[in-house]
Amino acid sequence: MRVTPADKHAKYDLTTLAARAGEEARPNSSVPLVEPIYQSTVYAFPDLDALDGAMSGAEPAAFYYRNGTPNAASLERALAVLEGTEAALVAASGMAAISAAFLGVLKTGDHVVTDARVYGVTYALLAEEFPRLGIEVSFVDACDLNEVEAALRPNTKIVHVESLTNPLLTVPDVPALARLAHGHGALLSVDNTFASPAVFRPALHGADLVTHSVSKYLSGHSNAFGGVLCASAELVALARTRLLRLGGTMSAFDAWMTMQGLKTLGLRMRAHSGNAQAVADVLVNHPRVKAVYHPGLSDHPQFHLAMDLYPHGFGGMLAADIEDAPAFVKALAGRIPLAPSLADVITTLSWPWGTSHRALPEAERRRLGITPGLLRISVGIEDIGDLLGDFESALD
């Protein structure tokens, strides 16, 4: 007589069966090619020793969602490898990652030197939130090493820059900044979101803290959200403690989706970089374009440094100051969307004046070169002939 699964559990009520059915040990004769999503918020242990080992960190094991999931752990391992660091920490957003990185190091009375061109929300964090905690912040032109050095103090703990700045694509000299920061007992922090490790790896040039918004190039398809810090095991441990207390946990689904996108990062970045260079070369010669900002143009102020640090391309970002920008955006409607983010496989436009840098005072926006007519262009991986045709028809 054949014994069915139901016969094995005949002593249990249907209510019990409904709760427990299917939770028996999984077969181990094969493994999935793609890691499954571990959506469980809590994990069970066979005994007190196993639980104690997980809670103490002696044995790597998931136990509670806020402390991390197997999917998050897989993503952390992958990103540490890609950025060339000892460890990594994923978080609920890019701002959660950068906040945890800073708060792991800083205390009341410390000082930060930062590029004035950083992402608008990072600027607000440093200009408004940190002073409330008794942390001093100096804003400088990070491309002027003399200005950076003059801002350093005995209590400076972090120098922070972006590898390629948002939105004007300036290129700080990361190796020189690392030497300068380390010579004064400070750490160098680099937001590498615009570049990705496929085109630049700041840790290999001396950076101590490397952060990303993973919803950009790392996931690459506008369908996953989170942030990451890549650093030494010691710095990641400090940041993880702060992150857990603040509750900035990345979801298992976002970690899983980012892992899927990560598999094509190298291929995508080659296409993004080549297409962006081609678009920049066309726009810079058009009479309706007042200015184009892209490191691959020979008139870029850091062109030679960029060619040295980024021998394999600069990613898909550029910015252009367009004559009658509203009409240009309208002419592209239905082909190239206006969307306040970046790094999708399709090309998108963004308006820094009213989105990423909206929180900055108008005078500061203009001082940084962010005008009402400036459009940030995230160039996708489409056929370059189609892309250039779209831009040229909209301009003409």
TrEMBL record:
Source species, domain of life: Bacteria
Alphabetized CDD domains for the sequence: CGS_like
Cofactor(s) needed by this chain: pyridoxal 5'-phosphate
UniProt keyword Endoplasmic reticulum present: no
Key words, A-Z: Pyridoxal phosphate
Homology family: Belongs to the trans-sulfuration enzymes family.
PANTHER family, alphabetized: TRANS-SULFURATION ENZYME FAMILY MEMBER
Protein name, UniProt field: Methionine gamma-lyase
